[in-house]
Amino acid sequence: MRATARQTHSRALAMTVSTSCGHVILNVRGELDAATVDEFADLADHLLSDRQAAVIIDLSKVSFCSAGALGVLLRLTSDADGHGTPLAILATQPAVLRPIQILGLQPVLPVHTTLADASSWLELLPRLTP
Fold first, then answer.
1. What's the rounded Cα separation, in Å, for the pair 72 and 35?
2. Kind and range of the H or E element at 30?
3. From CA 75, how far away is CA 70, in angstroms rounded?
4. Cα(129)–Cα(76) distance, rounded to whole angstroms?
5. Is there a contact between 17 and 27 (Cβ–Cβ < 8 Å)?
6. Mean pLDDT value of segment 103-121
7. Dihedral of the CA atoms 8, 14, 17, 20 (nearest 10)?
8. Which range has the worst mean pLDDT, 19-28, 73-82, 105-114?
9. Are 29 and 15 in contact (CB under 8 A)?
10. C-alpha to C-alpha distance for 8 and 112, rounded to whole angstroms
11. Collapsing DSSP states into helix, strand and coil, what is residue 7?
12. Residue 44 to residues 21, 128, 129: CA-CA distances in angstroms?
């Protein structure tokens, strides 16, 4: 995995961008709350606007996920679809998975619990869409 120069850190949030297996991975660590969600959205928007081959948003180290952050994930999923950029979300923490489950967002958010599953899905996705 190769880390890129794009990194951002605040008191409650750290993000890095790396590449692996041809996918761009946005690694997020910390809290996605009202104080940090705009910073997260800005970097994710930048990745999608660069028309990457495929993007994985790795939330496996996120300890809090606000309703606003879920809204950003929904918008990013829609924007990625509009750009034709395959997008996967990696989430393993209850702080992220539980709100997604409670709100019934599994059908619209491409959430995976392992990097291998997310990568496999991204490789399969172009063969499933016309």
1. 14
2. strand 23-32
3. 9
4. 19
5. yes
6. 94
7. 160
8. 19-28
9. yes
10. 24
11. strand
12. 19, 24, 23
Q: Which amino acid, 21?
A: C
Q: Where are the domains of the chain?
A: 2-124
Residue 104 gets which letter from DSSP?
A: T
Integer Cα distance of 118 and 56 in angstroms: 7
CATH of domain 2-124: 3.30.750.24
CA distance 21 to 97: 25
Does residue 107 surpass a pLDDT of 50? yes
Cβ atoms of residues 63 and 31 within 8 Å: yes
Looking at residue 130, its pLDDT comes to 61
Q: Are 57 and 40 in contact (CB under 8 A)?
A: no
Q: Which two tokens stand for residue 36?
A: 């940090």
* Number of C-beta neighbours around residue 22 at 10 A: 11
Distance CA 10, CA 23 (A): 25
Q: What is the pLDDT of residues 67-96, one digit of tens each?
A: 999 999 999 999 999 888 899 999 999 999
